[in-house]
From TrEMBL, chain B:
PANTHER family: OPPC IN A BINDING PROTEIN-DEPENDENT TRANSPORT SYSTEM. Keywords: Membrane, Transmembrane, Transmembrane helix, Transport. The chain crosses the membrane at residues 21-43, 309-337, 349-368, 426-451, 487-507. One of its GO terms (biological process) is transmembrane transport. It comes from Thermococcus peptonophilus. The lineage of its organism: Archaea, Methanobacteriati, Methanobacteriota, Thermococci, Thermococcales. Belongs to the binding-protein-dependent transport system permease family. Its main location: membrane. It is found in: Cell membrane; Membrane. This is ABC transmembrane type-1 domain-containing protein. GO terms for cellular component: plasma membrane. It is a multi-pass membrane protein. Residues 311-500 form the ABC transmembrane type-1 domain.
Length: 346, 514
């Protein structure tokens, strides 16, 4: 009793939107507390400024009554007079519909959060999607190769590499890369990584080289290993045995029969990887001073720009949910058995 | 399960695990690590965690110094850290009027191409209540014989007050510089317009020399730019000829040999002086096994103490999250129906949240700098979902087996069925996934520490890397601040991956066939 593909997609999408909304609700609940602390001190600051301005203009201090009146107006403006749950709810709705507003401090040269994130996202896409494409190409081809000869030198090397890479912090490998290529070998100028902004395409490409190398180096082993495992699992299935028994050449078995059957999980992996890469690796960007989402997060953290952080959190959640839904939908398209499962559950 | 059965199964497990080469390697490394972690207070000193942030303890250490074994790979030997305690010195007590006088002597063998960075005197404790009662310290030095140099023994530091718990850093003291200039004058390397009469008291003599240096702009330039230690430990002659002032200050050549130091401590009779902590440090240009960071903290000591937090966090987080994950997963599978549905939706919800941003958010919520306990709590909160998914699917299979039905037919309670029949079957999986999730927890801790979000009250490798990043260690080429902490993180991760994979192979019969 499967459901139609269209219904399946709709079901998944609705599910995703609900999950995303709940996630924003939870984050808002946490963030509203942080925002309250910040807004309270913001109000104090604005009142002080107003008093100073008034005194300069009128050559006398405003009365206590006037100060209180102004303070109340500011409190109302920042909705601090509203109860916690109401502010949380409004914040959730605003965040959910991308009405992010302005941050109190300039990050990436602007207080408009939408443009902060636009700038950062574009740069993160550039860096991480490029790396991800390399990873997919290298990982898949090496994985397929080692699946053809399990137990070979290549196969064992990849397993060990994947094992080691999974326990390495990517950002630490990044630090090593800078030490090696910038400081000791001097192949790249130090200014590329000591500054955040770099101008000119050539310089941007140069600046990209080390982070891309780092990300690929840390990630391709795991990819190759997973591909290998999926392929080896598929190779043990009955239909492969049958094909072998029939005398189909090994090459054809691998690239024809097995790869076809292994495609859904591998394609899912590719989607996950590509969209997951959009979030960037927060700390790796900090190490390389790469002005993307991670670096933006770090600067927002340093400057206590809580609204920017909230918007970023939302973006990270959107990306995660999006990749899950896309993977689900793709999986459902490629492997109709999944849809039956979803139907049985709903 | 009876005790005999348990013992038997442990024995069987061990005999199989023994044959896992990588597993045994991991186990040996783990034991070494545990021994080092537990032994940290005995290998170093138990109050390291208290001193780590305050910095007082590291004042005698050089900052950003590379490890001393780096000398073996370079043609220029840099002076290593050397600390003289009271036990390394010859102590003589005497009396001079109403003063007690302690004369401390020791010999420093300077056999490097680049001399020490500084000489630091600390640990002179007294019960002086008024500043004028503080003990006075003066230092004399006798250099190795050098042909053509007439004055080999001279005063380096005139009577200088040292309050209790105070520190004297000789390189930074103007008096030391002035006295070195006076000594250069005595040996004929510089000319002073007016000879300071020998008979004058030291203070006045110093003042006179200072005035003359300040009036002569060239001399004053040299005075400002000189590295006192390079002059103190430098040659004054070249091929039997006196060097010029320019050469002595700008192109110092180390004079190797034995330097005899005499430290005289004078204190009024009514003041009690405690010399038991007295230390003179020849501050090195290299330091110990793994060098120092920007605060002078030894990297090796931090590395050793970091083991404790890494293992504690890794184990606490992985055990708690796997146990919680299994319990939730099994409950979900066993209950079925809408309860299962609700639990699964919640699990998926948690899986959807982006982990690092959520961790950052929660640590901010907890007040910016989170403690060890809060950290464990947060990491568990975001770490149980994977186990739940697997445990649920495994429990669903087990649930359908006939002996469970039989147990239920016999009237066994839900709790009994879950804990006696289902959970024990999941144990092998649990052990493997505990081991495999340790690296993740350690990496998360390191990440949060790197961002400066964890409490300063612990020594962690992530915080050491954070300090390195703050210090620009990568761009400055301070490799010893970057490589060891990261390697330690990777090493612990690798140990648990080795153990986890081996456990998986031994305990999961399905994998054995593959």
């Amino acid at each position: 009793m499967g459901m139609s593909f269209g219904r399946y997609v709709a079901y998944r999408l609705v599910n995703a939107v609900i999950i995303l909304f709940l996630a924003v609700l939870l984050m808002s609940a946490l963030f509203t507390k942080l925002a309250t602390i910040q807004l309270t001190s913001q109000v104090d600051e604005e009142v002080q400024m107003w008093v100073r301005g008034y005194t300069q203009q009128h050559h006398q201090q405003p009365t206590q009554e006037m100060i209180e009146k102004y303070r109340e107006a500011r409190i109302k403006y920042y909705r601090l007079d509203q109860p916690y749950w109401k502010r949380m709810w409004m914040y959730t709705i605003d965040t959910f519909f991308f009405r992010w507003g302005n941050s109190f401090v300039k990050v990436f040269g602007t207080t408009d959060i939408v443009s902060q994130i636009k700038t950062a996202l574009a740069r993160t896409v550039l860096l991480f999607t490029t790396s991800q494409i390399f990873i997919i190409l290298i990982g898949l081809s090496l994985g397929l190769k080692s699946a053809r000869h399990p137990g070979s030198l290549l196969d064992r090397t990849i397993s060990i590499l994947a094992m080691i890479a999974s326990s390495l912090p990517m950002w630490w490998v990044g630090m090593l890369m800078i030490l090696l290529f910038v400081v000791y070998l001097g192949w790249l100028p130090i200014t590329l990584y000591s500054q955040v902004e770099v101008s000119g395409w050539i310089n941007i490409l140069k600046k990209m080289s080390l982070p891309v190398l780092t990300i690929v180096l840390v990630s391709f082993g795991g990819w190759a290993w997973t591909t290998r495992n999926i392929m080896i699992g598929t190779m043990q299935e009955d239909f492969i045995m049958v094909a072998r028994a029939k005398g189909v050449p090994e090459r054809k078995i691998i690239y024809g029969h097995a790869l076809k059957a292994a495609a859904p999980p591998i394609i899912t992996m590719v989607i996950f990887g590509l969209i997951g890469s959009l979030g960037g690796a927060i700390i790796t960007e900090i190490v390389f001073n790469w002005p993307g989402m991670g670096r933006l997060y770090y600067e927002a953290l340093q400057l206590n720009a809580v609204r920017t952080m909230m918007a970023l959190n939302y973006m990270f959640a959107v990306l995660t949910v999006l990749s899950m839904v896309l993977a689900d939908i793709l999986y459902g398209y490629l492997d109709p058995r999944i849809r039956i499962g979803a139907a049985a559950r709903s | 399960m009876r005790w005999v059965d348990f013992k038997d199964s442990v024995k069987r497990f061990w005999s199989e695990y023994k044959h896992q080469k990588s597993g045994m390697l991991g186990l040996i490394f783990l034991i070494i690590l545990l021994v080092l972690g537990i032994g940290a207070p005995y290998i170093t000193s138990p109050d390291i965690p208290k001193q780590w942030q305050t910095g007082e303890a590291w004042i005698v250490n050089p900052k950003n110094a590379p490890p001393s074994w780096e000398n073996a790979f370079s043609d220029q030997k840099l002076a290593d850290q050397k600390v003289y305690t009271i036990h390394d010195m010859n102590v003589a007590e005497s009396k001079n009027g109403s003063y007690k006088v302690y004369t401390l002597t020791f010999t420093y063998n300077m056999n490097y191409d680049v001399p020490p960075k500084d000489i630091v005197i600390t640990g002179l404790n007294s019960n002086a209540s008024r500043p004028q009662d503080n003990p006075l310290v003066s230092v004399y030095v006798e250099r190795p014989e050098e042909q053509g140099v007439t004055v080999e023994k001279f005063l380096l530091l005139p009577d200088t007050q040292l309050p209790s718990k105070g520190v004297l850093q000789l390189s930074y003291l103007k008096e030391v510089k002035t006295l070195l200039f006076y000594w250069l004058y005595q040996n004929g390397i510089i000319q002073l317009p007016m000879a300071p009469p020998e008979a004058l008291p030291m203070e006045i003599k110093l003042m006179q020399i200072n005035q003359q240096i300040q009036l002569d702009s060239k001399l004053y330039g040299y005075f400002q730019s000189m590295d006192p230690m390079k002059v103190l430990f430098g040659s004054l002659t070249e091929n039997g000829q006196l060097r010029t002032l320019e050469q002595v200050i700008s192109e110092p050549v180390a004079l190797q040999g034995d330097y005899k130091f005499t430290i005289v401590v004078k204190a009024p009779e009514n003041v009690k002086v405690d010399l038991s902590n007295f230390e003179v440090a020849m501050v090195g240009r290299t330091f110990g096994l793994l060098g120092t960071d920007q605060y002078g903290r030894p990297i090796a000591v931090g590395l050793l103490w970091g083991i404790r937090v890494a293992i504690a966090i890794g184990l606490a987080v992985s055990i708690s999250s796997v146990v919680i994950g299994i319990l939730i997963g099994v409950t979900s599978a066993y209950l079925g129906g809408w309860a299962d549905e609700v639990i699964q939706r919640i699990t998926e919800f948690f899986m959807t949240l982006p982990v690092l941003p959520m961790l950052i958010l929660l640590s901010l919520y907890f007040g910016g700098r989170i403690t060890l306990k809060q950290l464990v709590l947060i990491l568990v909160l975001f770490g149980w979902m994977g186990t739940t998914k697997v445990a649920r699917s495994m429990a669903l299979q087990i649930k359908e087996q006939t002996y469970i039905e039989a147990a239920r037919a016999l009237g066994a309670s839900t709790g009994r069925i879950v804990f006696r029949h289902i959970v024990p079957q999941l144990l092998p999986y649990a052990f493997a996934s505990i081991a495999l999730s340790v690296p993740g927890a350690i990496l998360s801790e390191a990440g949060l520490s790197f961002l400066g979000l964890t409490s300063n009250n612990m020594i962690t490798w992530g915080q050491m890397l954070n300090a390195a990043q703050q210090n620009g260690a990568t761009l400055n080429g301070y490799w010893w601040q970057v490589i060891p902490p990261g390697l330690a993180i990777a090493f612990v991760g690798l140990i648990f991956v080795l153990i986890g994979v081996s456990l998986d192979t031994v305990l999961n019969p399905k994998l054995k066939r593959a």
